[in-house]
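To illustrate the input format used throughout this study, we show a single complete record. The first block contains the structure-token representation of the backbone; no residue identities are included at this stage. The design step must infer an amino acid for every position from geometry alone.
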């Protein structure tokens, strides 16, 4: 077998350990990334061999994964990096964008500010809180003296 990357694959090795191509850049081993909507798929080679980054939905403690962002080959779309999307440096042997391990979801009461009473009131129903594995389960609530300025985490999930 030709080990320097130039020339055709040796007869019996073609498509059985040797991939033959006709461009100077096509013999680069592509990075692997987890691809898809929910992160459950195994990392596979990226079709774009020029890709150097993998991306995934950003996880925000007590809120969960960003909606509308997939696990993918390549950089985050547009201006989403750090906001709803995270990037990592791709590798040829494994996907760097594996989903984080999450803890067990839990519920907290949430609150709404009443403009008529100038106080926070309990909303009907509870909010589902999502955490990373190992993060403490924490709920919060407003004080009777709280205002819209000093109590902003109204979904009740996480520390004050």
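Output of the design step:
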């Amino acid at each position: 077998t030709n080990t320097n990357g130039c020339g055709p694959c040796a007869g019996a090795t073609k498509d059985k350990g040797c991939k033959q191509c006709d461009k100077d850049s096509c013999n680069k081993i592509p990075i692997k990334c987890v691809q898809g909507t929910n992160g459950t798929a195994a990392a596979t080679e990226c079709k774009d061999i020029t890709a150097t980054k993998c991306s995934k939905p950003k996880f925000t403690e007590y809120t969960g994964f960003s909606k509308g962002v997939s696990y993918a080959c390549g950089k985050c779309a547009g201006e989403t990096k750090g906001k709803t999307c995270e990037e990592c440096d791709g590798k040829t042997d494994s996907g760097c964008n594996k989903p984080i391990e999450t803890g067990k979801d839990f519920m907290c009461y949430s609150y709404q500010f009443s403009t008529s009473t100038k106080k926070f009131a309990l909303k009907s129903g509870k909010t589902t809180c999502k955490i990373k594995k190992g993060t403490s389960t924490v709920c919060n609530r407003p004080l009777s003296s709280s205002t819209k300025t000093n109590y902003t985490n109204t979904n009740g999930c996480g520390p004050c």
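Structural context for interpreting the output: Residues 55 and 142 are 37 Å apart (CA to CA). The chain is about 0% helix and 25% strand.
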